[in-house]
Amino acid sequence: MSFKRDPTTGEIVCFKGETGKAKDRRLQEGWFEKYAPENKPGLDIGCSDDPLNHTFRRWDLVFYDGDATYLEGVPNESYFTVYASHLVEHLSDPRKAIKRWYEVLRPGGHLIVIAPHRDLYEQKKMLPSYNPEHVRFWLPDEEDLPCTKSLKKEVLAAIPDADIVSLRVLDDGYEPGTAERMHPLGEYGIELIVRKGLSHEKSDFAPRSVVLCGRNPCRDI
User: Fold this and answer.
1) Which of 17, 106, 151, 199 has the fewest CB atoms within 10 Å of its CB?
2) Could you state, in order of their start, the residue ranges of all structural domains in the chain?
3) What pLDDT, in 10s, does the model give residues 116-131?
4) Is domain 2-213 given the CATH code 3.60.20.10 in the classification?
5) Tens of pLDDT along 49-60?
6) Distance, CA of 207 to CA of 163 (rounded, Å)
7) Sign of CA dihedral 50, 87, 157, 206
8) CA 214 – CA 60 distance, rounded (Å)
9) How many C-beta atoms lie closer than 10 Å to residue 7's C-beta?
10) What one-character-per-residue DSSP string does the chain give?
11) Mind listing the pLDDT tens digit for each residue in 178-216?
12) Could you tell me the pTM of the whole model?
């Protein structure tokens, strides 16, 4: 479960997961049309009952699918959108998984990877996490070993020529956890989006820094 404070009533609202609570913000941004159009084939990895688009293929152990790291049986270049939200923190080999997710992406499509931001979610530097299923922490650019990896560096290690079109921190409605309520409210993620270019093109976009989203309107660099 995930939680967010209603801006009108101030009450805490419960969502099924991280994707659901970001839906209104994404609709306002035109995010779906840009990165995850419902009329094109998409793969939603690890979504359980919190899907991005109801038209997308949902891949999850709860549906008796295989290991998300390998996506056995999924043909290469078969999906326009590949989406993995709050999954890499659970994986023993996230680099191998990211490489495989990129393989099943069609040219012209987008791979979207979201991880919890260590300083917003964990609010600590050393394992264990208060979520026992998290095997590592994540920051956008920097590493802080032994427990914290850089999402950008991990993606570039998996996809050396990755065309990163967006890298930002999502903190819409964020409130830190408290002693009474350990789980933070709102969004607390790092969103990284890679576009798989056509063979003859390459975007000249190059993220120079991480953009905060939530307290100000979301924007790409």
Assistant:
1) 199
2) 2-213
3) 999 999 999 999 998 9
4) no
5) 999 999 999 999
6) 10
7) positive
8) 29
9) 8
10) -EEEE-TTT--EEEESSHHHHTHHHHHHHTHHHHH--TTS-EEEET-TT--S-TTSEEE-GGGT---TTT-TTPPTT-EEEEEEES-GGG-S-HHHHHHHHHHTEEEEEEEEEEEEBTTTTT-SSSSPPSSTT---EEESS--BTTTEEEHHHHHHHHSTT-EEEEEEEE-TT-B---SS--SPBS--EEEEEEE---TT--------SPEEESSS-----
11) 877 778 999 999 999 999 997 545 544 455 445 655 444
12) 0.87
Structure tokens at 183: 């789980």
**Which residue in the block uniquely carries the two structure tokens 């570039």?**
156
| Length of the chain (residues) | 221
